[in-house]
């Protein structure tokens, strides 16, 4: 059974349709990438999955349990982690306090929390150095680490990441992607929303391409990366050059804009 | 000098009432950006309930200290319950509605509670049963002529204890921290697994409970109650919250005591009828210099 099974999901903002008939699945231990231009509905998809936005139709099953109409805090309590777009760390709280809040659902198990906190600081030594610092004073990359670490405090079985590389330097981006791989190795399935299509597909097992609220393409990551339509729209139209080092960040951005007009 | 000391003691006592009530305003504002018009009425309900309990129990042979404690606990619990129920039925359904709807429903609740009380209890002033050890002749004489009555001592001690307790609750416990992060970013709080609705309700319960305690002590101190007492005191308490920096808990405490002191000095050194002029004049002055209040954070825009 799939860990996450989404069938025919519809969502809208007032009269504006944001998602229509989205179906996808994530198997245990998988990394699945969601690609798409700005406004394709990627963030709405994640917000609807975690109950921050109301689904109009369709079902979402987490490990076979229907979570479509559950409230966000229940869904989080069932092991669904969501690192939101823009990181959303609690700026006026210290790094350590942010992690504490991440473990809110496990507040009655201080021993487990202490252990997870230790693991998070091990995964992000940089955060360990800044435990007492207010989260608002961290750099963007550090805030992204904190946002991920905070979600890990709840020991999620499933982790949705919304644009973790947004606004980060190439160095930080590589670092974050490395962390995502390690998270998967520890048994957590990952749903990765990214504009940085090239890197996302290199990391993911499978991928889906969203266009104006619908799944336009899906398949194994390697196949998507070779698909001429994906190349044209999201990989900057570059030929399938296997050169691993290129001006990655900017090309994917332009690709996104190109797809918007198509 | 003796006058000054006496005015200070009086001011701290009145300030304690303002501070306790201001806390409720500031906590609710911090968490859902609502100016809760009905908050002063939680104070009034506490005062009336305490009066009822006192009337029932004085003359029953119970020691008067116990009677006071029972009245305090009962009125606090009743006000807290009223706060929780009104959050559930009046405010929570409107959390996502435009802020103006929330404000109007707060106004409606306030009028309903006030005039409901007027209908059932009458519009006149009702006197509160006399409790021997709280009357003015029981006092600790400090330097010559300066007196701290037991009642004043009780008010200041109970308020300080509650404020310290509240501060520890908000900074040291999970639920208290949830309240603070909810004020920073509601969706992010949900993603941490915080039950936002329940946490908002808890905020109302605590704020209303503090107002209920203040109402009881007020009834015992002045000893009379009236259905509009919450409106008048609430206005000053709200001023205190703004003065301290709305949304900021230590700010509400500082603002409350400051307003109490100002009021007492103005009454003592100028004249009673100038009190409001002085108090609100200072408020305006402070806000011109520091628009976010004494302890208010300079508003950082969310990115």
Automatic annotation (TrEMBL), chain A:
<dbReference type="InterPro" id="IPR017871">
    <property type="entry name" value="ABC_transporter-like_CS"/>
</dbReference>
<dbReference type="InterPro" id="IPR003593">
    <property type="entry name" value="AAA+_ATPase"/>
</dbReference>
<keyword id="KW-0813">Transport</keyword>
<dbReference type="InterPro" id="IPR052156">
    <property type="entry name" value="BCAA_Transport_ATP-bd_LivF"/>
</dbReference>
<keyword id="KW-0547">Nucleotide-binding</keyword>
<dbReference type="InterPro" id="IPR003439">
    <property type="entry name" value="ABC_transporter-like_ATP-bd"/>
</dbReference>
<dbReference type="GO" id="GO:0005524">
    <property type="term" value="F:ATP binding"/>
</dbReference>
<feature type="domain" description="ABC transporter">
    <location>
        <begin position="4"/>
        <end position="237"/>
    </location>
</feature>
<dbReference type="InterPro" id="IPR027417">
    <property type="entry name" value="P-loop_NTPase"/>
</dbReference>
<keyword id="KW-0067">ATP-binding</keyword>
<dbReference type="Pfam" id="PF00005">
    <property type="entry name" value="ABC_tran"/>
</dbReference>
<protein>
    <submittedName>
        <fullName>ABC transporter ATP-binding protein</fullName>
    </submittedName>
</protein>
<feature type="region of interest" description="Disordered">
    <location>
        <begin position="233"/>
        <end position="262"/>
    </location>
</feature>
<keyword id="KW-0029">Amino-acid transport</keyword>
<comment type="similarity">
    <text>Belongs to the ABC transporter superfamily.</text>
</comment>
UniProtKB/TrEMBL annotation, chain B:
<protein>
    <submittedName>
        <fullName>Branched-chain amino acid ABC transporter permease</fullName>
    </submittedName>
</protein>
<feature type="transmembrane region" description="Helical">
    <location>
        <begin position="277"/>
        <end position="296"/>
    </location>
</feature>
<keyword id="KW-0997">Cell inner membrane</keyword>
<keyword id="KW-1133">Transmembrane helix</keyword>
<dbReference type="InterPro" id="IPR052157">
    <property type="entry name" value="BCAA_transport_permease"/>
</dbReference>
<feature type="transmembrane region" description="Helical">
    <location>
        <begin position="42"/>
        <end position="60"/>
    </location>
</feature>
<feature type="transmembrane region" description="Helical">
    <location>
        <begin position="66"/>
        <end position="91"/>
    </location>
</feature>
<keyword id="KW-0472">Membrane</keyword>
<feature type="transmembrane region" description="Helical">
    <location>
        <begin position="100"/>
        <end position="118"/>
    </location>
</feature>
<dbReference type="Pfam" id="PF02653">
    <property type="entry name" value="BPD_transp_2"/>
</dbReference>
<feature type="transmembrane region" description="Helical">
    <location>
        <begin position="12"/>
        <end position="35"/>
    </location>
</feature>
<dbReference type="InterPro" id="IPR001851">
    <property type="entry name" value="ABC_transp_permease"/>
</dbReference>
<keyword id="KW-0813">Transport</keyword>
<comment type="similarity">
    <text>Belongs to the binding-protein-dependent transport system permease family. LivHM subfamily.</text>
</comment>
<keyword id="KW-0029">Amino-acid transport</keyword>
<feature type="transmembrane region" description="Helical">
    <location>
        <begin position="200"/>
        <end position="221"/>
    </location>
</feature>
<feature type="transmembrane region" description="Helical">
    <location>
        <begin position="150"/>
        <end position="170"/>
    </location>
</feature>
<keyword id="KW-1003">Cell membrane</keyword>
<keyword id="KW-0812">Transmembrane</keyword>
